[in-house]
Amino acid sequence: MRPMPWRGRTKFCISNIRRPKACRAGRPREMTAKRLALAAVCAWLVAGAPAGGAKAAEPLAQAVPCLPCHSVAGMLKKPKVPSILGQDTKYLIHQITAFQRQFAPNSSSFLRLERKHPVMSQEAPKVEHEDIALVAEYFASQACVNAWQLDGNRTAPLPNPLLANRCFLCHGQGGRTTHAFVPSLAGQRQEYLRVQLVAFRDSMAEGPSRPGRYRAHRMMTRQGEKLTDAQIDELSAYFSSQRCR
After folding, report:
1. Contact 4, 28 (CB under 8 A)
2. What percent of the chain has a predicted confidence (pLDDT) above 70?
3. Going from the N-terminus, what domains does the chain have, and what CATH number goes with each?
4. What does each C-alpha distance from 197 to 57, 82, 83, 203 come to in angstroms?
5. Half-sphere exposure of 65 (CA within 13 A, CB side)
């Protein structure tokens, strides 16, 4: 692949990693350490992961603030952090954008969401707009990790069918979704799932001024407000016990 002309009136776009294309000519940009690192990961994604793929992720670790929490090592220390490995690229782009803007505008009201988090609301804006797709593509390309790989084997019964089917409708049977903008729940940490369901429920009652985590979504807020603490525990235990793929 011909090297990209980084200097001069550069025509380069990383918003579509699988099909790099020319973008509008813009003013010259300095190749910072961050951009060099992101470019290295971009090349790795286009070429395919080489042997020792874990080593290939190191440039990204230096470039964005994601891996300290969202790598396997990070998740081992933080049970309230989601596993974003293997999630759909479009879903990840949508979430990063929501944290950056406090909401993610979209032509479809179903996709509109608002998010606030004491850490993510500070860290997400550090990812430059043109790099969001690259970061999302990197995490989407990784193999998902099951909660039992981090916490040990756990089993949980299927919740009440009426309750479970409300989740399966969008999140897929067993929590393995087929919808691009909907996250897979299977294999997520139980504590993370519990915290998110509580956030959906309580954000409805308290509004955007809710301290700490605030999460609002047209569908999920309505579903969350109906849940009791016992149902939240039941659902989070079940989806945590499922295999992500």
Report:
1. no
2. 67
3. 33-50+61-241 (1.10.760.10)
4. 31, 13, 16, 10
5. 11
Q: At what angle do helices 33-47 and 132-140 cross, to 10 degrees?
A: 40
Q: For 194-216, write each residue's pLDDT tens digit.
A: 999 998 898 777 766 666 678 88
d(CA 79, CA 172) in angstroms, rounded, equals: 23
Separation CA 66–CA 61 (nearest Å) = 7
Say how many residues make up the chain: 245
CA distance 70 to 237: 21
pLDDT of residue 127: 85
- What is residue 37's predicted lDDT score, i.e. its pLDDT? 53
Give the model confidence (pLDDT) of 82-92 as tens digits.
Answer: 999 999 999 99
Q: Supply the pTM of this predicted model.
A: 0.73
pLDDT-derived band at 112 (thresholds 50, 70, 90) equals: low
The C-alpha atoms of residue 84 and residue 185 are separated, in whole angstroms, by: 10
* C-alpha span between 194 and 73 (Å, rounded): 21
Q: Retrieve residue 80's tokens.
A: 């309230």
Contacts of 53 (CB under 8 A, 6+ apart): none
